[in-house]
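<amino_acid_chain>
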Amino acid sequence: MKKLSILCLLAAFVASCTGSQQTAETNKQEQQPMQEKSAHEKLEFPELDDFQKPEVKTFTTENGIKFFLVEDDELPLINLSANIRTGGVQVPNKKAGLASITGTVIRSGGTKTYPADSLNAMLENNAASIETGIGFTSGRASMDVLKKDFDTLLPVFVDVLTNPAFPKEKIKLAKTQTKSGISRRNDDTQQIGFREFDRLIYGKNSVYGRNTEYATINNISRKDLVNFHDNNFVAENMMIGVVGDFNATEMKQKLRKAFGDIPEGNQNNLDFPEVNYEWESTINFINKSDVNQSFVLIGHLGGMRDNPDYAKIQVMNRVLSGGFSGRLMQVVRTEMGLAYSVFGQYGMNSFYPGNFYAGVMTKSSTTAKAIDAIIKQIERLQNEPITKKELRDTKDQILNSSVFEYDSYEEVLSQQMSYDYRGLPSDAFEQYIEGVKKTTIEDVQNVAQEYLNPENLQILVVGNKDEIGDQLQKYGDVNTIDISIPEPGSGDQKMVKGDAAKGKQLLNKMADAVISPSTDLNTLTVSGEATMQGRKMPMTMTVDYPDAIQQTIEGPTGEVKLNYKGGSGTMVAGGQERPLPPAMAKGLKSTLNKSFVSIALNANEVNPQFLGTEKVEGTTYNKLNVTVDGSNVTLLLDRETNYPDIIRYKQFNPQAGSQITIENRNSNWKVVDGVAYPYSQVTMQNGNKASSVTYKSHEVNK
């Protein structure tokens, strides 16, 4: 029956289509003005319910906290959020990162009453969450909780907000996580581009363009966190919003009681320095050798949110770069085929000027062509009025998307608090929408002429120097930007002086002991088993001297392959290949250069100095210092074999954010084809055992 019904429906559908086609032909021949409605035109839909914007009730406690309340009984949930008048802008450059770390440890460290582990367990058992953080212009805290648990957890939230314990181990963890982020900040092309473009616009030493560095994190102490919190987390700097299933009158009483004892303190007057921007045309380049595309940003300083022309400028911005309908997408991507991704923004901030940029990701070979195309579209906005269709489509795009501005009661509350914090009127969004509606074709051209400056564009390109070639020279003298990450202590080592003659004699003996004078070493392959953190992992490594490494490790989650050559490389894990992070590539190169084999191969270039003898665990060694990449490397040579049984040097550790002492202890030496290699190696870091390797074989030139 079911099969028969389907066949009948299919037959009816075909007949209907045929009949419709015949009717259409007949109507066309008879030129009848009326057409029968199609099936989709006959469909009827009920009218959509209007979103009823809720009332936001406000009150202020005697100690200065302003509260915003929105009742919503749809679900038995309550969300509490706090805005704190503070931010990274208050932090001096030498301690950049303090605000962010403080915001993290307020929550992660718990309080004396509710230590971190107890706090985590309590929240998990009650399906609740408490989060804190501090950004550049504000601090924040929030609590999501079931209605039935609100009275229990409200005092917990207040305690976290006002009495953080700041335990040292949690501060150390937060600093380590921040340093880990610093070590990876040059991995992603877009992250590099946007970061360095901000530094071009605002100045690399300004609070708006500065970087958080290892040194600035190392400068931060527990006392700094305590003082930053105590000076800022006071009542005068707080505004609290609550939305959810509650009665406003009862909630006011609970909030007055919970927050009433917070010290009033002094309200912050956040100081946002003036931007000393120089209008000029520049071309700037960052070399990233592991990519085959260019990431380009073109622009200049933007504006402020309270500009009366805000709506007109945003309409202009949408015409230029408003997604798939914007000119950049239509021309640069669709018509010219120069990019998959092209974008832009005219930034207008509340506390300091934003920036204007247009950007593109394009093939290395079409970098200049894409730049020219973007500049042409910026100039076109000034020189030609936009079309009526462009204005209509842009307004529709803005107005249609505006329905999502208040798609929940939480959004209404958040927006209202944001406007209050930034000093904007409560109807700022409504004013913006009205401004969009009133914007004319002439308005768009006028603001383009006033606020865009195509004669003074700063161009930043992140790409592969070898593939881009000389394309950028047409824009002027190319400024190459150095994005290397400063390593504290890397320049602190002084040249060690000793007996140079005896040092050279001993180093030559070591070189001959490690590599027979009759052996022309080009490639060395070793295989064995590494032990790290109690895990044993089979490994194979091939070194093509002077600067290529291929390494395979059988890790806990599968095979990992590393390939390094001449400054860059790749890592294959889980069947996926990705570029080797620059920090890892640099570490591999440094380790290779400081290995005893590389030192033996470069014996004439390392300035050996004999420093006498040193006794280690009952054995006396000849002590030799050599200089590798500007760093001191100590070799402790066996007085009979001249093998380097101990190698000691300092190396930067991104996790620690400082120089650490590496000591490799070599034993069980074996000779194959004229090359000696230790079949047992133990690596120490700052005196603690970090890893060990037991080798099974080594091969020469194979």
